[in-house]
């Protein structure tokens, strides 16, 4: 069988085509040293799931780079506080490595408390604090006792795993162990829910929240987009968890089910059919006739107009191909949305997928779709060159690899500008995807001036080698 | 008599840093070598987040490999990772050079990167019997523990490691080595432009101008593997030992210049970046001193156009305006001197680095401009914020990280330095040389006009 692309022998099994054999690539393995990996570290994984807690300080206990390169880089929006955007570091120095950084950490936490009086202080362990063996838990406990402010250890030593998913879980553990269940809600309703795994990137949450509230659902907390620590503290009283990013947050939902008996359903607010189904499932879960009626009315009202509003985009996008290369969840949750704008998902891949993620992808994509695990930059470039999709969906590091090859790109990561969730989000989604795919520049990118007058293929010059 | 007032940080905590760790600077330095790749010996985040930061500033791909250290390495050492890493990188990319950049974790676990690299090079030699050329790859260890120094010192170590490993005495040349510092493609191109007008061949250590600003030409973009155009070739770096002299445009990252002087008798001139009139004048004098080449009319005309621009507008719109400057130590000193030349008052400069001569240099500028300057030394954006809240200024100059503060306070921000991620084009245009001065003058004046003058004011007409 011909390999999907030329690459190192050990990497070939990380790529497959759906319909051939198992249809699940080898995954969840350490990246090959010396490749330009698109992955990140465990610390990065923990930081991105907690960073959207807006009233909290996120303190990185490590050398300056761990904070300096990661502060205010998550496009999670806030309707209230801006504290989460601050880049805080203990700036560990050589003497701290020798004598230990606990004293410095303690001082730093107290200073932060005095300056900002935050809702919580999350203290992130890094490679260095792990290797020198700082007892972050003890320092957090001591400072919490002294200040009365929540000081929460996040055991996110960067190198502890090849997969940042572990970082998502560690971030989840910090909430489960130190936040959830520490405060009782003033009042409860029979329709209390948490939205788990929604990080309000570009304001996605705000496309969903009004719909849920109109249905009659009461949102106790969002974990963690646009949230306050105090709200997450009350999450244990929900009657239902709905999970949007199932890559990062199934873990938290499962643990809450076990600990508090809160059932969870997996939802997906990307695309019309998925949004509709998700709203119906939530209403069905509560089984309240009035809520079910209201939900149907909301769906009917919201769907009206969407077709008209997206028609122009769909016409241009019809039959175009798209490759997804994302962290995890979007590798399956976007597939239907793309089909709804008339596009064909020809490749779907993740950087950090585990087996259950690839099961999901396999169930969702059509036969013949390329499924890719942990593609490094060279492999990604080769995939793009060989299969020439009309669009790549990925993040900031992949953006310029793709564009340099003349392949249109649309950001679906932290740097996204428009909210894509919900019905209105779908219109923005169609618009932005169309803007990327149909940009005239890619017809003007060919190599010699004599060729400009012909109509080059969108998605790269045929003669490219 | 005006002077400086040094304000050091009075807390342990850093909020919104004005520095990052050493490896970033070393990665930047290696990116400026032709057909070279940085390989970070550390966690995946150590390369990934830097790539993210380069990508958002330059809007270019940044190929940086990583040895992917995991927990077992903390126990058993990272030898296996760096060894396999270099070999994989060599096999896939066949680069001319690999910079093996250490990090905090690889340094703390005590990895002997120099020893590991030696062993791996021997293996590459054996492997070259099957795969031609592997033995020709230069692999340079660059020790940059993240808990020492900052990105600026990391840049210094990066360039120095390259130069010390490669520079080879040979036939003397007419070239002049330039150590540009962490600057933009536009700056390096402006330096080359000036040197071309002077008729001097520059040897840029290292030249990131093309790698970080490369054309989109799908049919010629090499992707198997991807190397950007340009960069200083390994042979040129070897030849740096034979140049007429070295000029640094970064006073605080000077050790490669001093090393070349010590080891290869290449005279070193250590200078601040040529930002503004006097600094650019000094750069030209230094070039003349080393090469005996005259400054041509064309450059004097460029200077004249800048002087003309300042004369036309500075007194009218900029005089006495208070400026707060933050960022890398070299750019802030350069900018402080330049705004002084415009008749503005650099009332405060703030840097995250701890470069030793920074304060004395600011003292000179204070005397020259007649402005009392508050120097926030080894500080962060939080200190900057507290300061400008208490001591209002008219203009802020620095990287994008000040954008939210500028917005809150309603103070115009002139974006300069690294990173600038919320506007486009800033990496392509120079701030150095007379042309850079014109660009800055225009940015500053237009910002002042927009903010401080009524849109219908008669003064705007001329």
How does this structure look, described?
The complex is a heterodimer of chains A (465) and B (462). Helix content of chain A is 43%, strand content 14%. Chain A is of the alpha/beta class and 465 residues long. Chain A has three domains: 42-178, Nitrogenase molybdenum iron protein domain (Rossmann fold), CATH 3.40.50; 192-303, Nitrogenase MoFe cofactor biosynthesis protein NifE, C-terminal (Rossmann fold, 3-Layer(aba) Sandwich); 310-451, Nitrogenase molybdenum iron protein domain (Rossmann fold). Chain A is globular and about 70 Å long. Chain B is α/β, with parallel strands linked by helices and 462 residues long. Chain B folds into three domains: 4-15 and 297-461, Rossmann fold, CATH 3.40.50; 22-149, 3-Layer(aba) Sandwich (Rossmann fold), CATH 3.40.50; 176-213 and 228-291, Nitrogenase molybdenum iron protein domain (Rossmann fold, 3-Layer(aba) Sandwich). In chain B, the strands form three sheets. A six-stranded parallel β-sheet of chain B has the order 1-13-12-11-14-15, sandwiched between helices.
CATH superfamily of the largest domain in chain A: Nitrogenase molybdenum iron protein domain
Global Rg of chain B = 23 Å
Based on the coordinates given, report the CATH architecture of the largest domain in chain B.
3-Layer(aba) Sandwich
Instruction: Find the count of extended strands of chain B (DSSP E, 2+ residues).
Output: 15
Distance between the termini of chain A: 23 Å
Question: How much strand content do the residues of chain B show?
Answer: 5-15%
Write out the strand line-up for the largest beta sheet of chain B, numbering strands in chain order: 1-13-12-11-14-15
Main sheet record of chain B: 6 strands, parallel
User: What is the CATH C-level name of the largest domain in chain A?
Assistant: Alpha Beta
How many domains make up the 3D coordinates of chain A? 3
Multimerization state: heterodimer
Q: What's the pLDDT, averaged over the residues of chain A?
A: 93
- Class inferred from helices and paired strands of chain A: alpha/beta
By CATH, the topology of the largest domain in chain B is: Rossmann fold
What distance separates the N and C termini of chain B?
35 Å
The total strand number of chain A stands at: 14
SS class of chain B: alpha/beta
Relative strand content of chain A:
5-15%
Spatial strand arrangement across the major sheet of chain A: 1-12-11-10-13-14
């Amino acid at each position: 069988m011909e390999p999907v692309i030329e690459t190192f022998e050990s990497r070939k099994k990380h790529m497959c085509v759906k319909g051939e054999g198992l249809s699940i690539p080898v995954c969840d393995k350490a990246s090959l040293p010396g490749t330009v990996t698109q992955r990140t570290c465990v610390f990065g994984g923990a930081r991105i799931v907690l960073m959207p807690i807006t009233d909290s300080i996120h303190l990185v206990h490590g050398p300056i780079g761990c904070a300096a390169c990661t502060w205010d880089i998550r496009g999670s929006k806030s309707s209230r506080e801006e504290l989460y955007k601050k880049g805080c570091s203990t700036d560990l120095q050589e003497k701290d490595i020798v004598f230990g950084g606990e004293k410095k950490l303690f001082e730093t936490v107290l200073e932060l408390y005095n300056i900002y009086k935050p809702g919580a202080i999350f203290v992130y362990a890094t490679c260095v604090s792990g290797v020198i063996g700082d007892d972050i838990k003890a320092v957090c406990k001591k400072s919490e006792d002294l200040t009365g402010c929540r000081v929460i250890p996040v055991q996110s030593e960067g190198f502890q795993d090849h997969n940042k998913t572990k970082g998502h879980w560690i971030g989840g553990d910090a909430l489960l162990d130190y936040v959830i269940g520490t405060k009782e809600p003033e009042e409860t309703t029979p329709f209390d829910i948490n939205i788990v795994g929604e990080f309000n990137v570009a304001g996605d949450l705000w496309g969903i929240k009004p719909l849920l509230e109109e249905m009659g659902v009461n949102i106790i907390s969002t974990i963690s987009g646009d949230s306050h620590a105090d709200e997450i503290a009350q999450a244990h009283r929900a009657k239902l968890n709905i999970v949007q990013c199932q890559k990062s947050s199934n873990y938290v939902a499962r643990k809450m089910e076990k600990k508090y008996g809160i059932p969870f359903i997996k939802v997906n607010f990307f695309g019309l059919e998925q949004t509709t189904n998700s709203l119906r499932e939530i209403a069905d879960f509560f089984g309240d006739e009035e809520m079910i009626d209201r939900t149907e009315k909301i769906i009917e009202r919201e769907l009206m107009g969407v077709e008209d509003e997206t028609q122009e985009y769909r016409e241009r996008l019809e039959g175009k191909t798209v490759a997804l290369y994302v962290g995890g969840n979007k590798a399956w949750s976007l597939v239907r949305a793309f089909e709804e704008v008339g596009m064909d998902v020809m490749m779907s891949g993740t950087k950090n997928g585990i087996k259950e993620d690839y099961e999901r992808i396999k169930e969702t994509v059509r036969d013949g779709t390329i499924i890719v695990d942990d593609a490094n930059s060279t492999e990604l470039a080769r995939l793009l060159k060989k299969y020439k999709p009309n669009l790549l969906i990925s993040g900031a590091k992949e953006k310029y690899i793709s564009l340099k090859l003349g392949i249109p790109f649309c950001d679906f990561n932290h740097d996204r500008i428009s909210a894509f969730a919900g019905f209105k989000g779908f219109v923005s989604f169609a618009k932005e995807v169309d803007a990327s795919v149909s940009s005239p520049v890619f017809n003007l990118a060919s190599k010699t001036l004599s060729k400009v007058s012909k109509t080059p293929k969108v998605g790269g010059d045929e003669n490219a080698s | 008599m005006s002077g400086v007032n040094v304000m050091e940080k009075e807390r342990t905590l850093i909020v919104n840093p004005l520095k990052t760790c050493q490896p970033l600077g070393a990665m930047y330095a290696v990116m400026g070598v032709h057909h070279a790749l940085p390989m970070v010996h550390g966690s995946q985040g150590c390369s990934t987040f830097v790539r993210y930061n380069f990508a958002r500033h330059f809007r270019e791909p940044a190929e940086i490999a990583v040895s992917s250290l995991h927990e077992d390495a903390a126990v058993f050492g990272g030898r296996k990772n760096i060894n396999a890493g270099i070999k994989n990188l060599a096999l896939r990319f066949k680069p001319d050079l690999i910079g093996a950049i250490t990090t905090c974790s690889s340094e703390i676990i005590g990895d002997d990167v120099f020893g590991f690299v030696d062993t791996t090079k021997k293996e590459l030699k054996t492997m070259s019997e099957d795969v031609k050329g592997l033995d020709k790859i230069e692999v340079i260890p660059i020790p940059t523990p993240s808990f020492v120094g900052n990105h600026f010192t990391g840049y210094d170590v990066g360039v120095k490691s390259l130069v010390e490993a490669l520079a080879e005495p040979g036939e003397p040349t007419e070239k002049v080595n330039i150590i540009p510092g962490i600057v933009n493609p536009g700056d390096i191109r402006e330096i080359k432009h000036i040197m071309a007008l002077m008729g001097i061949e520059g040897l840029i250590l290292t030249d990131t101008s093309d790698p970080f600003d490369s054309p989109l030409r799908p049919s010629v973009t090499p992707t198997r593997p991807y190397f950007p155009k340009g960069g200083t070739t390994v042979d040129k770096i070897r030849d740096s030992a034979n140049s007429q002299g070295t000029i640094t445009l970064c006073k605080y990252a000077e050790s490669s210049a001093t090393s070349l002087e010590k080891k290869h008798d290449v005279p070193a001139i250590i200078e601040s970046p040529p930002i503004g009139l006097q600094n650019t004048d000094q750069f030209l004098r230094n070039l003349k001193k080393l090469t005996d080449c005259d400054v041509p009319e064309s450059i004097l005309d460029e200077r004249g156009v800048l002087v003309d621009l300042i004369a036309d507008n500075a007194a009218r719109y900029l005089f006495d305006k208070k400026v707060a400057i933050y960022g890398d130590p070299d750019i802030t000193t350069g900018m402080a001197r330049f705004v002084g030349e415009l008749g503005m008052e650099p009332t405060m400069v703030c840097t995250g680095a701890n470069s030793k001569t920074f304060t004395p240099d600011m003292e000179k500028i204070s005397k020259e401009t007649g402005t009392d300057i508050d120097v926030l030394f080894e500080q962060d954006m939080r200190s900057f914020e507290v300061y400008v809240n208490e001591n209002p200024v008219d203009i802020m100059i620095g990287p994008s990280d000040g954008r939210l503060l500028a917005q809150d306070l309603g103070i115009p921000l002139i974006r300069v330095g690294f990173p600038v991620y919320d506007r486009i084009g800033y990496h392509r245009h120079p701030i150095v040389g007379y042309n850079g001065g014109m660009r800055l003058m225009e940015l500053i004046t237009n910002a002042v006009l927009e903010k401080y003058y009524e849109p219908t004011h008669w003064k705007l007409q001329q």
